[in-house]
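FAQ
Q: What does a multi-component entry look like?
A: The components come first, one per line:
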Amino acid sequence: MSADDYRLEEQIGFLLRRAQQRATAIFTTRFAGYGLTPTQFAALAKIADEGEVSQNRLGRLTAMDPATMKGVIDRLSERGLIAGRADQKDRRRTQWRLTDPGAALLAAAYGDGFAVTAEIMDPLSPRERATVLRLLAKIV
Amino acid sequence: MSADDYRLEEQIGFLLRRAQQRATAIFTTRFAGYGLTPTQFAALAKIADEGEVSQNRLGRLTAMDPATMKGVIDRLSERGLIAGRADQKDRRRTQWRLTDPGAALLAAAYGDGFAVTAEIMDPLSPRERATVLRLLAKIV
DNA sequence: GAAAATTCGTTCGTATACAAACAATTTCAG
DNA sequence: CTGAAATTGTTTGTATACGAACGAATTTTC
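Then the predicted structure of the entire assembly, as tokens:
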């Protein structure tokens, strides 16, 4: 394989980057009214699932490294959407939970979360949608 | 669809983000010796294809917005891998091309570009690889 | 040919993303 | 029980990513 054969457009990495750009753009448009980014929404949704969760564990659940997670937590916390309390059993940990405004915002936003997924998948048939999810899950 | 039905792990956006994280990690490991990021490599490859190309056009070819492109161009230029010259016909434009060291580095790195793609696709069968490329191209 | 619209590149601000190094704390091994 | 190892969270630095606003230059429109 020589340099002439390298077609950027056919590399999975480039396609993944472009697909994520489109996904983010769709999310941003749909969530403009909430002022939430994809990662912030993911964090809120996972905190809701867990009830109460430490910062590092939330990072693992949402695929964010600790340094990234800190920024996301700080911004959600400053907006009053989540609240933290020191863990009594492990003094390294802070446990985070949704505040009432956070829970209300999340409840209002879920429907748009589904809408974002639907819009991203719109170019695909139902069968193709299932396939792409299955193959991406394999790649991850 | 209620909030209980929202499973982050099954949303295409979340899967795309995770897949790209893995792709980037594989790239970073394989390209550590070159000191090139995925976007820098993409830019070099496209400049090589084009011979000479303006900054905004390169951004369109590599799916980077002008602000992002500027940072990539600046870093490649500072390393002496590319060189720019003012366009005589359009004085807003700068035309960029590979320097000899840039061309040499790119030539040495192409093989690893293919290797990165292969490693990302490793969990998939040949048929699945073709399918995922086709479906991602539809989504983009 | 002049006004309007578009394009090119820059700058600023915000938000991921992650490597690397670190202190504090907890867990594990012998 | 104690030293080693692992975990938790923080900080710093670098690199995308993009919205928004901008001046300069070019193209389009009438």
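Q: Is there any commentary attached?
A: Sometimes. For this entry: Residues 10-139 of chain A form a domain with the Arc Repressor Mutant, subunit A fold (CATH 1.10.10.10).
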